[in-house]
Amino acid sequence: MSTADKHGFGTHGIWIWHGGLTPHQAARVEQLGYGTIWLGGSPEDLAPARRVLAATDSIRVATGITNIWNTDPLAIAREFADLDKDFPGRFFLGVGVGHREATQEYASPYDSMVDYLDRLDEGGLPVERRVLAALGPKMLKLSADRALGAHPYLTQPEHTRYAREILGPDAFLAPEHKIVLESDPETARSIGRPPVNKPYLHLRNYVANLKRLGWTDDDIADGGSDALIDALVAHGTGEQIRDQVDAHLAAGADHVAIQVLGAEDVTDVLEQLPAG
Fold first, then answer.
1. Domain Luciferase-like spans what residues (predicted)?
2. Residue 149: left (phi > 0), alpha (psi -120 to 50), or beta?
3. What span, in angstroms and rounded, lies between the C-alpha atoms of 80 and 76?
4. pLDDT tens across 200-237, in order?
5. At 64, is the secondary structure helix, strand, or coil?
């Protein structure tokens, strides 16, 4: 492992759509030594997390994310309490504001998140058992003040370094990074570009973050430049991918959530990445 596992998540986990992992696959991820399974999408309750927890013995499970617009924070707090009773210490709530383009009720992201966190506090959900989807400075600062830390999505090590400066040394930082196990660059980009382009290169918050990191309109247009796709989707051999992913750890991350693209069974790819 490249950094000390000071928060107990392991330095490497996986990120997968909340309906994309069978019980057998979840158990295999645990057997391979990954520390956390992040369940993506915006389910309306924590039932997907319960299924993964029930299929495994000790791996942590976190939402990536629970969307503040389609969930009731007090109901989520009650579900959290039930999960923590049945699977003590293993579940963490990742919370996010989603996308302006996908949410009719979308209001001020920051103020709405603060309100949601206030309700989670009211429901008794511990600060140290939640993380926030955060890209920009205000939400990153809120992640350090009102949660264990931050879970940025669609980023690169340069953002991780930027986020660590804002979060300070103690907050948890767990970026997501996409991978394609393919050594031919053109083939890898043909797999990685579509899920990056749609929807993310058409969503205001992600585009703003990429521009904050120095990417231009030309990089973002037409599905993303080769350089942009290569920065956001690691490809190559298992060893080469692991080196790219671990650049986040060198930049200040505590943990990296690996999202496998282009595989029928993500565990087949995870098996080919170097252990440890």
1. 25-118
2. left
3. 6
4. 999 999 999 999 999 999 999 999 999 999 999 999 99
5. strand
